[in-house]
Amino acid sequence: MFNRLSTQTVNWILIIGLTLFVLEILFFRGGLILTAIVFGVAIYVGHKNHAQSWGKFTFWGGIIGLLVTILNMLAVRFIIVVFILLFVLDYWKNKNATYIIPEHRLNRPAQDEVLVNIHPLFKALLHGKQSTPEDAYEWRDINIFSGIGDKVIDLSQTIIPDDTAVVSIRHGIGNITIYIPYDTEFMIHHSAIFGRAYIVNKPHEQLLNQQLSYQTENYATAKTRVKIVTSMISGNVEVKRI
Fold first, then answer.
1. Can you give the residue ranges of the Cell wall-active antibiotics response LiaF-like C-terminal domain (predicted)?
2. Is the domain of 237 the same as that of 189?
3. CA-CA distances (angstroms) from residue 224 to 153, 161, 164, 215?
4. What is the DSSP letter of 24?
């Protein structure tokens, strides 16, 4: 359904939803922001103390409370109703649609294309800490979206191929630490709404809705290199030599 929606239609839905959100905050339910902040603090405190029982209770209580708060917003309910209506209309159109099967002039023999299933190093988790294996492991590019938790990637325990190894992480809340061997060139593009970045010997004490980019001196000509692309809502990113 979504691939048949025009960009203009989606943009109008989002603009109307954003307008309703602003009107609701300014004139009707200004306390929603304070409520969301309280639940956000509860999630953060609960995550930091997740090893204890009260920390788990605080964390999941904050998650549930924040979801309920978001679902009670007029703008969110508007977007949900609109997409339900679009789904129903799309289903009705497809139900009565007539499909034309193209005729192929050349009858080529069907060949089974061999696809190899590659198991990712990391999984997309809503919550939890993840790290690469402590022992030697086979390298696979990392491309994940995650919620809350820390990520640790140690490239000294793997053999990077003579190519560009890619580490792409879109993260919510938590820290990302990447260990790179001294003889490996790398590039990093990082963006964060709030947090800190420590790129080898280039510390940035605070990032506030900022982006940064660095690359080592011989990155452009190196055969073996690592490209790092990270983004997060809140947290620290650190690249260390090992």
1. 128-239
2. yes
3. 17, 6, 6, 14
4. I
Long-range contacts of 219-223 (CB under 8 A, 24+ apart): 219/185, 219/186, 219/187, 222/185, 223/162, 223/163
- Rounded CA gap, 141 and 163, in Å? 11
Question: DSSP string covering 113-144, please?
Answer: PP------SS---SB--EE--SS-B----EEE
Centre a 10 Å sphere on the Cβ of residue 146 and count the other Cβ atoms it contains: 23
Q: Which residue type occupies 220? A: A
| Structural domains counted in the chain | 2
Q: Look up the domain containing 24 and give its range.
A: 2-95
pLDDT > 90 fraction of the chain, expressed in percent and rounded: 20
pTM, entire model: 0.59
Pairing status of strand 164-173 against strand 225-241: parallel
Distances, alpha carbon 218 to alpha carbons 94, 184, 186, 226, in Å: 54, 9, 9, 12
Is 176 in contact with 235 (CB distance < 8 Å)?
A: yes
Q: Residue 227: CA atoms inside 13 Å, Cβ hemisphere, count?
A: 10
Task: Give Rg (Cα) of the chain.
Answer: 23
Is 170 part of a structural domain of the chain? yes
For residue 110, tell me if it sits in a domain: no
Residue 219 lies inside a defined structural domain of this protein: yes
In this structure, what are the phi and psi dihedrals at residue 172, rounded to the nearest 5 degrees? -90, -85
Q: Is 233 helix (H, G, I), strand (E, B) or coil?
A: strand
